[in-house]
Design brief:
Length: 311
């Protein structure tokens, strides 16, 4: 452990899974496999939606955005983790650490906003079908995505600048496999009360605003579905929402637990496991969750496979 003052800190040590050296090789294989599956699954979704004209709809546009963010989300942390596991060199520069923090917060919060927009999209498609095409026209959905990016970018920049301004004088060892905000705040020897207040208040707003949109949208959707006389109509309406609800639960549960709590409640092994769940596992599963129950995506995939086999 190195003792330094803020002016001397030029790098951090990501301890990550170093407390389990006997598992380093196994962990490398597991994370490499998950990363490859994540890339292949999400890239496939993006390419299918881009190339198949039947999927050029608002719902699939937003799904392609979510898959693109998932690719970025895992690529921010997993390659560095793989390098650390294989080389045993867990050092990350001061600037590299806070750059990683900024992009990680941006991508993670963007996922929440996209899930909120997707919920509103499902509400409009089911509850306001006659106005859906106008309300979710191309320029509107692009504006929603770009506005979300601007919001999460400023949010992430505020947290990153404030965290980078703290003093790190007792240790430069981060008990995590990437530069996340809670372990950085715990590491600092400065007064982090302002950071924690901002983290709790602003992150609550950033996370809860999309979640509130999701809850309100699905209350309206459920009421509308219950009013459909046809059982087949109710089943079809609900099936378009089931995948989205699964992703929301998988994404929001761990994130809310991680960020809306004081840094004193931080626990190394527990928080690393939770971070793996929402930053790696969720991004890997999302393409499969959205394709298992989606006949249109499966049809587009079969079409591509048959075309390749016939060549």
């Amino acid at each position: 452990m190195e003792t330094r003052n803020q002016s001397q800190v030029t790098e951090f040590i990501l301890l990550g899974f170093s407390e389990h050296p006997e598992l380093q090789t196994l962990l490398f294989v597991i994370f490499l496999t998950m990363y490859i599956i994540t890339l292949l699954g999400n890239i496939t979704i993006v390419l299918l939606i881009r190339t198949d004209s039947r999927l050029h709809t608002p719902m699939y546009f937003l799904l392609s955005c979510l898959s693109s963010v998932d690719i970025c989300f895992t690529s921010i942390t997993v390659p560095k983790l793989l390098a650390n596991l294989i080389s045993k060199n867990n050092i990350i520069s001061f600037s590299g650490c806070f750059t990683q923090l900024y992009f990680f917060l941006s991508a993670g919060n963007m996922e929440s906003f996209l899930l909120g927009i997707m919920a509103v999209d499902r509400y409009l498609a089911i509850c306001k079908p006659l106005h859906y095409a106008v309300l979710m026209r191309r320029n509107v959905r692009i504006a929603l995505v770009l506005t979300s990016w601007l919001i999460v970018s400023f949010h992430s920049l505020a947290h990153t600048v404030m965290a980078a301004s703290l003093s790190y004088c007792s240790s430069n060892e981060i008990h995590h496999f990437f530069c996340d905000l809670p372990p950085l705040l715990k590491l600092s020897c400065s007064d982090t009360s302002a950071n924690e207040l901002l983290l709790f208040v602003e992150t609550t707003v950033i996370l809860m605003t999309p979640l509130l949109c999701i809850l309100i949208s699905y209350i309206c959707i459920i009421v509308t579905i219950l009013g459909i006389n046809s059982e087949e109509g109710r089943r079809k309406a609900f099936s378009t929402c089931a995948s989205h609800l699964t992703v929301v639960i998988l994404q929001y549960g761990p994130v809310l637990f991680t960020y809306i709590r004081p840094s004193s409640a931080y626990s190394l092994d527990r928080d690393i496991a939770i971070s793996v769940l929402y930053s790696v596992v969720a991004s890997m599963l999302n393409p499969f969750i959205y394709t298992i129950r989606n006949s249109e995506v499966k049809g587009a995939l079969r079409k591509v496979i048959c075309h390749k086999l016939s060549q």
